[in-house]
TrEMBL record:
Top-level taxon: Eukaryota
SMART domains xref list: FBOX
Listed name of the protein: F-box domain-containing protein
Entries under Pfam families matching the protein: F-box
Organism: Cerrena zonata
Domain F-box, first and last residues per copy: 48-97
């Protein structure tokens, strides 16, 4: 035993230094406190654990009220529920849950209840677990995404499972579209699940004799047949289930929309909703057209956004539409007030839209917005302004028309463009008619109401102003020079045939009064038509060039189209000209083109309008101051006469009725008389 003095002295262990205490700054401490205060505390977290503490019969009664998908989600909440619901002893719970879904078939042979519930109700690919997959491949008892359909299946033509030709019968298969390469070429083929094909092939290779193979084929064939029957039941159920589900969601959606509408109507947005119902403005909002019931909290979340949307995107357009409807309602009264003034002050008068585009008239319309009753007399304040408005408007129209004519005819400034013969005729793009450029026309020409040409050329067509939109939809249009095309190329051949220069005036041509015949032989059997120069232009423009493109492109007309009759032959046609003038006047009197200047009576024959003025207005001797003919009529060749060959003297029955009419009215003569 060693004495204390003999023992080896060991140096004492140094005292362990305490770990340095990490200092926490005040800002970090504040941050930690803030995070702790802002932490979301889930109320009732883990409350389902207490459900398993209840007696089993009560647990079963609770679980019987759930559907298959509810049980599937409950089994995934924690391990205890998973052990309870996935165990074989809980099969009765799944069967009762399946009864809650109307018409749901039993699971496929060999498939468990949870797997069948996942197949029917869970939107997940069963191979790659991609979400939002709704397509069910019943033949494979799986839900597959598009990628897995391509990689996990094999076309039946590539399967080398059996030597027999009936290998498709032994495998569950489905039709699928298969693309060829990277292009758009594709074809449809039967495909089978690759894993099932591999399993079937391995089983087949283990069979050694023909008896076993025949038995295997018989069993697989029977299995596939039973599987097809079960698939048909499942597909039929799925169609019914989707239809019922869609109806249920539609009812929820309609009820939600109706509740939102009731709340908005109480807030004073009823008129806006009535307007939006015809335009789909409110229903198109995602949080309105939802499939969840409208609760108080949901309305608090979305109500302010809906109101803002109405005030910004619905109410302004609704007010504009109402103003446009009001202005359109006023337009007939405005048109009547304008027509009454026009009848007493001559025919040359602005059309409705010409007046409506004038600021003074616009102010009259705006002042009527607060009026309850609109009448023709509501526009009496506009009448004193009309004389000055008419003068200003006509000056503007003449200036625009002369500018267009001078540019189109390439005429020098030294000539009076309105007096030239080549500027006498215009082609209207609105009605596809030829009109004369007289003092009245085309200022009052009204033909393009509602046509595509007018709306594409109108200066108001791209406007958002309600009043201008109402003008577009009114009874007439505003005057535009762009709706006319000068057809001087049809007058030039007439001038050349008469030996006149390009700048010949209408007065000079009327004094010459030539008679022309068409060289193209428009009449059969040698009958010759004699035209005056105006009728010749109308004939060429309507008979020989009927397409509008000829007018737009200003295609040249045959210079040798016309031949002028010698003076001695023209002198023999005087009696025919007199008969043609009388016939044209009689035709005009019989046409329903006469208007009364004292009222709205119009579209009557001359005899009818004269009788109307005598009986209804008490005027004994009506004259042109009491009625007038509508100048806005299509031009016709009513002053033409005919020269008929002598061979028809004894065979008049062979002539057409139109030619007989010329002979009976004295507008035709035989060749020997000429």
């Amino acid at each position: 035993m060693l004495l204390r003095s003999k023992r080896v002295k060991v140096a004492p262990k140094p005292a362990t230094t305490p770990k340095a205490i990490k200092k926490i700054r005040a800002s970090q401490e504040k941050t930690q406190v803030t995070k702790a205060a802002n932490a979301v505390v889930r109320i009732g977290r883990g409350a389902l654990r207490d459900l398993l503490q209840m007696p089993m019969d009560i647990i079963c009664e609770v679980l019987y009220c759930l559907g298959p998908f509810d049980l599937l989600r409950l089994a995934r909440t924690n391990k205890a529920f998973r052990d309870l619901l996935i165990h074989r002893s809980s099969i009765h719970i799944w069967k009762e849950a399946r009864k809650t879904v109307s018409g749901l078939p039993e699971p496929f042979p060999g498939m468990s209840e949870p797997a069948f519930a996942s197949l029917c109700f869970e939107n997940v690919c069963h191979l790659c677990f991609k979400s939002r997959i709704r397509k069910i491949c019943w033949e494979f008892r799986l839900k597959l995404c598009s990628a897995c359909e391509k990689t996990r299946t094999t076309p039946s033509s590539r399967l080398c499972v059996l030597d027999e030709d009936d290998r498709e019968i032994l495998l569950p298969h489905m039709s699928m579209k298969i693309n060829i390469g990277t292009g758009y070429r594709s074809y449809r083929s039967s495909v089978a699940l690759t894993s099932e094909a591999v399993t079937l092939r391995r089983t087949w290779k283990k069979l050694t004799n023909k008896k076993e193979k025949d038995k295997f084929i018989h069993e697989q064939t029977a299995r596939c047949r039973e599987l097809k029957k079960h698939i048909a039941k499942c597909q039929k159920w799925m169609l019914t289930f989707k239809s019922d589900r869609d109806e249920e969601l539609e009812k929820i959606r309609d009820q939600r929309i109706e509740e939102i509408r009731e709340k908005l109507e109480k807030l004073g947005y009823g008129d806006d909703l009535a307007w939006a119902r015809g335009h789909g403005g409110l229903i198109s909002l995602p949080h309105v057209h939802d499939t969840k019931p409208l609760t108080t909290q949901v309305w608090k979340d979305i109500g302010e956004d809906i109101i803002d949307y109405i005030e910004d995107n619905i109410r302004p357009f609704r007010i504009e539409d109402e103003r446009q409807e009001f202005f359109e309602y006023c337009m007939p009264f405005f048109h009547e007030a304008r027509a009454s003034f026009a009848r007493s002050h001559g025919n040359i008068f602005p059309l409705t839209n010409d007046l409506a585009s004038i600021p003074q008239v616009t102010e009259v319309f705006t002042s009527l917005e607060d009026s309850d009753d609109i009448e023709v007399e509501s526009f009496d304040s506009m009448i004193p302004l009309l004389p000055k408005i008419i003068t200003t408007w006509r000056t503007s129209v003449d200036k625009r028309l002369e500018t267009y004519l001078r540019t189109a005819a390439k005429a020098p400034s030294s000539v009076n463009i309105r007096d030239l013969a080549i500027t006498r005729f215009l082609y209207c793009l609105g009605c596809s008619q030829i009109i004369q450029n007289t003092e009245v026309m085309p200022a009052i020409h009204d033909c393009v109401k509602g046509t595509k040409h007018f709306k594409s050329h109108c200066s108001f067509s791209s406007t958002n102003d309600p009043f201008k939109k109402a003008c577009i939809n009114s009874v007439t249009q505003a005057w535009m020079s762009s709706q006319y095309i000068l057809i001087s190329n049809y007058v030039q051949p007439v001038l050349q045939a008469c030996g006149k220069e390009r700048w010949t005036t209408v007065h000079e041509l009327d004094q010459l009064d030539p008679r022309l015949t068409c060289k193209l032989g428009c009449e059969d059997s040698g009958i010759q038509t004699i035209y005056r120069w105006r009728d010749a232009v109308i004939h060429a423009a309507t008979v020989h060039k009927q397409q509008a493109n000829h007018f737009r492109q200003q295609k040249s007309v045959d210079r040798g189209l016309w031949e002028v009759l010698p003076l001695q032959e023209v002198e023999k046609l005087v009696c025919l000209d007199r008969a043609a003038d009388e016939f044209a006047a009689a035709q005009k009197n019989e046409q329903h083109i006469w208007w009364c200047r004292h009222c709205e009576k119009h579209d009557l024959p001359k005899e009818g309008i004269v009788q109307h003025v005598k009986e209804d207005h008490g005027i004994k001797g009506p004259d042109e101051h009491d009625y007038f003919s509508n100048p806005d009529l299509p031009l016709t060749t009513t002053h033409t006469v005919l020269v008929v060959p002598d061979s028809y003297k004894e065979s008049l029955d062979c002539l057409p009725e139109s030619i007989k009419s010329f002979i009976e009215t004295g507008r035709a003569m035989y060749q020997s008389d000429l």
